[in-house]
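Action item from last week, closing it out:
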Amino acid sequence: MAATNKCLAQGNKSRTVRKATKKRTTTFNRRHRQEGQARALPMARMTEHDMIGWFNAAPMGSRQQRMLWAADKIARLTGATEGGVYQMLERSLERAESAPSGS
């Protein structure tokens, strides 16, 4: 019976927390960020020009596929919802198409 109490006593001991010997630097985190991933911008700082730029950078496909791709990218960068970004992108593209090309 003494062995059982000894085992229980060892299991109840608080373990000491050891600190890591090597710490990762911020350059490690930057280096391992996905290729082409920009820093997160608040949606207020994302301009129409930026949104249209993401649309133009989308891989080739139908207009809807490119809009979905761009909306997904912008939503991940800004933290906004994908549906809201899609609507904003749609309005931005409509305004850009209706604007005179000479200006």
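Closing note: The CA atoms of residues 49 and 92 lie 8 Å apart.
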